[in-house]
Amino acid sequence: KGVVGAHVLGFNTGSTGIAVIGTYSDAAPPPAAMSALRSLLAWKLDVHHLDPLATYPLTCGYGQKYATGETVWFKAISGHRDANYTECPGDALYRALGRVRTAVAAMGEPKVYDPTLSAAAFSPNGDGRRDRVTVSFRLSEAAAWTVQVRAADGSVVRHLEGEAPGGETVSVVWDGRDDAGNVVADGSYKVIVGAANEHGAAREATLPVTVDTVPPAVAEVSCVPDPFSPNGDGQDDLTTVLLRASEPGDLRVTVVDGSGAVLRTVCGWTALDGTSGAVPWDGTLDGSAGPVAAPEGPATLRLELRDAARNAAAATVDVAVDRTLGFPRLSRRWLSPNGDGRADDVTLGFALTRTAPVELVVSKGDAAVRTERIGRLGSGERSAVWDGRDDGGATVRSGRYLVGVLARSPWGQTRVALPVTVDLYRPRLTVPEGLTVAAGATARVAWSVRDPYSATVRVRVTVTDGKGRLRATLDLGWVRQGTAQTLRWKPPARGRYTLAFTARDRAGNDQAAAALTTLRVK
Fold first, then answer.
1. With pLDDT > 70 as the criterion, what percentage of the chain qualifies?
2. Is 90 exceeded by the pLDDT of residue 273?
3. Which residues sit opposite 121 in a β-bridge?
4. How large is the average pLDDT for residues 224-242?
5. Helix or strand run (H / E) with residue 97
6. Cis peptide before 208, with omega less than 30 degrees from 0?
7. In three state form, how does the secondary structure of 116-184 look?
8. Which of the 8 DSSP states describes residue 291?
């Protein structure tokens, strides 16, 4: 097996580089070098069954002369300059490549070119889906050809033969039967293409193929969440169809009615990632003018799976569409239930489309910390309040929580929730005890504030002189906690000043006491 070299930028994969040592811009390569080049090319192209006079596609892996991802057709024997901006292999050698191609094509015994199979796997079970496989190839010259199918133990199960002129495509169909007319057993086989004439025998081409008549199995099918609420509020607007299959394959998911008619194609035939799949559905159906909202209630999704041999399996799963509850909003994002009258509770607003029993649920991670039955509420805009306490009445600890409500409907239970940060931590300022500056200079005071539950903290500074008179009030705004900051202030005169730093976080918590810096101006 060849390695991937670094011989042609963007096209290393799928190609082979041959270096002819020397400079051939004007001088032609020596005859010995050209002879060696032709012999090497004849062997290498025959190994891969490539036609020296044909062109083949390569995908550009890194753009220079061609764009990344672009498919470019190259002659089987090309020069470096065909792929990149370079003079390589030199004008003299480049002009000789046409003669090289012709000479290589005429060398040796008959050749088998471009052998391919119509599929790597097929299923000869008579269901009309990939029941046979076609072997295609070309011969370099007129010859008798053979196609043999060999089992894993090397025995020949099918032998086909014929004659063909050079250059024409030969197509041979194998229907999955042996020479006695019986369908072969499932398993791995090799299709071997050979040819011979009075000039000798061609190098055989080997193509692997799998016979597979066993349909895949679809298991562990579910929809999450179920019910879901496709109302555009960003809360469970999608449900995800989850499945596990017995083998890789292609999946199609559709929404169907009771008769099996397709109401919407959620995804067309798409390759599974291994043996598991996850397909989202947005709760819409096909309408005459585009997608329309699916009605509330149960919906049926049909999953169709086909393996590489086109064996098929199907399964259905039901999911409920429920728009009873939606559109949550919070009165604040930070909560500080410490009884100081600032941000002691939070209100969650929401909308109901029908009367429903509603329950407040507050959770941290996967654990519920507060559940409270609110009762049956009518349709319209509604709200629920959380005071920052758990089911036992104790104030919860600082951290991130989800504040939500549950609503029950004829189709199940839906939930909306939004995150809120409980912050009982007072911001802490770090400032220098004192510093001295020269008269007329700008003081630079290094400081920082820390608060693990507020990403930003609002900091203010009041400046008083030695007689206690207010000389300045500075609002430093909302600054990032935990980062080094510098306050620049130019004192108006010599003397002593006191800078009092205060901080308030997003939840309204204040630093316990002002942080003081004494500034002396000489």
1. 100
2. no
3. 210
4. 97
5. helix 91-105
6. no
7. EECCCEECCCCCCCCCCEEEEEEECCCEEEEEEEECCCCCEEEEEEEEECCCCEEEEEECCECCCCCEC
8. E
Contact 425, 411 (CB under 8 A): no
Looking up tokens 């004007």 gives 26
Residues 401, 369 contacting (CB under 8 angstroms): yes
Sign of the dihedral defined by the CA atoms of residues 273, 276, 280, 286, in that order: positive
Please tell me whether residue 9 adopts helix, strand or coil conformation.
coil
Q: Tell me which residue has tokens 């597979």.
A: 212
State the average pLDDT for the chain: 96
Q: How many CA atoms lie within 13 A of 98 on its CB side?
A: 3
Comparing CA positions, the residue from 104, 107, 111, 101 lying closest to residue 142 is 111
* The predicted structure's pLDDT at residue 510: 96
Alpha-carbon gap, residue 338 to 505, rounded angstroms: 14
pLDDT tens per residue, range 2-47: 788 899 999 999 999 999 999 999 999 999 999 999 999 999 999 9
Q: What domains lie within the chain, and their CATH numbers?
A: 31-105 (no CATH), 112-211 (2.60.40.4070), 218-321 (2.60.40.4070), 325-422 (2.60.40.4070), 428-521 (2.60.40.2550)
Half-sphere exposure of 349 (CA within 13 A, CB side): 9
Tokens for 90?
A: 């030199």
Torsion of Cα atoms, 428 then 433 then 439 then 442, to 10°: -30
Neighbours of 400 (CB within 10 A): 12
The yes-or-no verdict on residue 375 having pLDDT over 80 is yes
Beta strands in 11-85 (DSSP E): 55-59, 71-75
In eight-state DSSP terms, residue 440 is T
pTM, entire model: 0.77
Q: Is 295 helix (H, G, I), strand (E, B) or coil?
A: coil
User: What span, in angstroms and rounded, lies between the C-alpha atoms of 144 and 454?
Assistant: 82
Average pLDDT over residues 263-271: 96
Nearest to 46 by CA among 16, 23, 74, 66: 16
- Compute the distance between CA of residue 203 and CA of residue 194 in angstroms, rounded to an integer: 7
The first and second tokens of residue 407, run together, are 């609503």
Question: How do strand 412-422 and strand 334-335 relate by DSSP bridges?
Answer: parallel
pLDDT at 301: 98
State CA 112 to chain mean position distance: 41
* pLDDT-based confidence at residue 1 (cuts at 50, 70, 90): low
The secondary structure of 353-383 as a DSSP string is SS-EEEEEEEEETTEEEEEEEEEEE-SEEEE
Task: Reduce the DSSP state of residue 508 to 3 states and report it.
Answer: coil
Task: Judge if the upstream peptide bond of residue 89 is cis by omega within 30 degrees of 0.
Answer: yes
Nearest to 230 by CA among 302, 329, 299, 317: 299
Report the run of H or E that residue 463 belongs to, with start and end. Answer: strand 456-465
Are 457 and 503 within 8 A, CB to CB? yes
At 491, the amino acid letter reads P
